[in-house]
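Need a sequence for this fold. Nothing fancy.
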């Protein structure tokens, strides 16, 4: 099942009847950057070129989630909304969920202006946390750390830090092998992220 990413914060429950949508069948859902399922054999598919892939696993209730988090989705807290959706649909406990933060742009390569910085200043009120997310540069520019922003958002809803793993692999730093929108000036393809539950033996 392929997402319909528009940098929003909508998370969809995917069931068996959704199999193939966006790939071999017409998609009947839109503006969906996150998906969750507990159906074995269903593969969730999302795509990226600097934004953050977030992989969610509830090993207790055997459920998964896959979410696309660009700066807009991150500031709208799509990471915590994915957790909330898993709680509602599967009875997931945030303390038991494992999260992987996949290859995406690092803070050294991601410079933003005051407009984007102000969005993050509006959700991170703790000065120490804000300093982990934003680093002020010259001429009203900031370095933005999406990895840290998503880590803090996940921790705020009860995901333990020890359950959050980051690849620390930057798409822009490694644009020879990974597609990067920024490094290529928009002349790029997409990276795919896939997550599924093995069918029962």
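Here you go.
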């Amino acid at each position: 099942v392929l997402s319909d990413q528009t940098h929003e914060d909508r998370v969809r429950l995917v069931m068996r009847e959704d199999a193939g949508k966006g790939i071999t069948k017409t998609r009947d859902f839109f503006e969906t950057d996150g998906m969750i399922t507990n159906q074995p054999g269903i593969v969730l598919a999302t795509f990226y070129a600097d934004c953050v892939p977030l992989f969610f696993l509830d090993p207790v209730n055997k459920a998964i989630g896959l979410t696309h988090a660009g700066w807009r989705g991150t500031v709208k807290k799509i990471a915590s909304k994915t957790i909330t959706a898993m709680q509602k649909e599967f009875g997931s406990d945030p303390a038991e969920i494992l999260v992987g933060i996949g290859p995406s742009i690092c803070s050294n390569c991601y410079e933003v202006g005051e407009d984007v910085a102000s969005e993050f200043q509006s959700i991170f009120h703790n000065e120490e946390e804000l300093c982990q997310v934003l680093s002020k540069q010259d001429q009203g520019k900031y370095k933005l750390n999406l990895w840290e922003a998503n880590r803090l958002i996940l921790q705020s809803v009860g995901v333990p830090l020890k359950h959050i793993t980051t690849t620390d692999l930057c798409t822009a730093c490694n644009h020879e092998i990974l597609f990067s929108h920024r490094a290529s000036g928009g002349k790029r393809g997409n990276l795919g992220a896939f997550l599924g539950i093995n069918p029962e033996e």
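For context: Residues 113 and 141 are 5 Å apart (CA to CA).
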